[in-house]
Amino acid sequence: MRLFCRKYSLLDTGLLGGAVDSHSHILYGVDDGVRTIEESLEAIAREEEAGVTQIWCTPHVMEDIPNTTASLKRRFEQLASAYSGGVKLCLAAEYMIDTLFDERLSARDLLVIREDEVLVETSVWTPPLNMADRLKRLQSIGYNPLLAHPERYRYMSIDDYKELHEMGVRFQLNLPSVAGLYGDSVRKKAFRILEMGMYSSIGTDCHRAGALQKLFTDSMLSKGEARRLTILSEVV
Fold first, then answer.
1. DSSP character string of 142-180
2. pLDDT (tens digit, 9 = 90+) per residue, 192-211?
């Protein structure tokens, strides 16, 4: 009987080498994420040390946090001017599918990832009204919806994921999910979606610089899980 079984960290998988962090809250002082420019720079440095080469700052935009595109661009310019390292910094946003999102969409006032991806989210517990129709409207205008951390949505079943994926909705995996930081049920869902080949990008969803050390080095993945994440690196 084997008394000891090696566990692997996210760093062990090699997933972070050359990785793009498509979801973070390291733009300081704009939402519930990082509060100061010093902490923003610390978070970027930790990601760079782990091997990440590009970080998308994706602050919340929602009715409760009504950030404007102009204000986010100004804050991002301040951060970019203060940073002199090797990580490529980019600005987008994470949009809650709510009334404010509908308004920004109508005005074509959206900050996108890459050329056309709009990072969207919903409540963890309940879907927004007419979610599919709103996503289709986004697509009809020429955007590609990228659903943030789908594994965290308690109301979604595997059939729901399949339906969205068949619609052309892209999925972003939260690394804390596979690391078990949201609990075992979310972790299992994440690996199930991963096995189905539905993820197209990854993100730290970093809200605090200090959390990155635990995320990158303290996660306890089995050999099989680590191997599956290694395969993911070829996709994202």
1. T-EEEEE-GGG-TT--HHHHHHHHHHT-EEEEEHHHHTT
2. 999 999 999 999 999 999 99
**Nearest-5° angle of CA 120, CA 16, CA 13?**
115
The string of DSSP letters for 25-54 reads --STTSSSS--SHHHHHHHHHHHHHHT--E
Looking at this protein, which amino acid is placed at residue 89?
A: L
Q: pLDDT tens for residues 104-125?
A: 999 999 999 999 999 999 999 9
Cα→Cα distances 46→17, 23, 25, 55, 149, Å: 13, 15, 14, 12, 22
- Report the relative pairing of strands 144-148 and 54-57 from DSSP bridges: unpaired
CA-only gyration radius of the chain, Å = 17
Tokens in use for 27?
């733009």
> pTM (2 decimals)?
0.96
